[in-house]
Design a protein that fits this description.
By secondary structure, this protein is of the alpha+beta class. 36% of the residues lie in helices and 17% in strands.
Length: 138
């Protein structure tokens, strides 16, 4: 199955978010690079027009991290944030450093490795191993 056929990616694409105003974060980049076939949801960091579109679709709430705001769409398949995790670069830096995969902006794997390593959660250990096997870690 191609990336654009994944159910969550198909939902994301129906939002018609401007690609220069969002980036897929979380575990989504592992999906984009074929390191995982299954993810629980797509985490999106948005700014400007992409954030306005998200706000037009649902009310913003405080995310579990307590950092910023989030909009939950498609019964939780898509979570759109106005900023990423505490200690992560700001939304502008994340979005500006995005890599396009099939025309969709994703955080680089090196950046995903940074925050998954920093968070040190048990659920991230598998992803850390997969990324380290793929990227040249210095």
């Amino acid at each position: 199955m191609g990336l654009r056929q994944h159910p969550f990616v198909r939902e994301l694409l129906t939002l018609h978010l401007p690609t220069d105003d969002y980036v897929v974060a979380g575990s989504g980049p592992l999906l984009a690079h074929g390191l995982r076939q299954d993810v629980n949801d797509l985490d999106i960091v948005a700014r400007a027009d992409a954030w306005k579109i998200a706000l037009s679709m649902a009310d913003a709430t405080v995310p579990p991290s307590g950092h910023g705001l989030m909009v939950v769409l498609f019964d939780g398949d898509i979570e759109i944030f106005d900023r990423w995790l505490p200690g992560a670069p700001d939304a502008d830096e994340l979005i500006n450093s995005a890599e396009l995969v099939e025309g969709i902006p994703f955080c680089p794997l090196s950046r995903v490795l940074e925050w998954k390593t920093r968070s040190n959660r048990e659920k991230d250990m598998r992803d850390i191993k997969l990324i380290m096997e793929r990227v040249d870690v210095k």
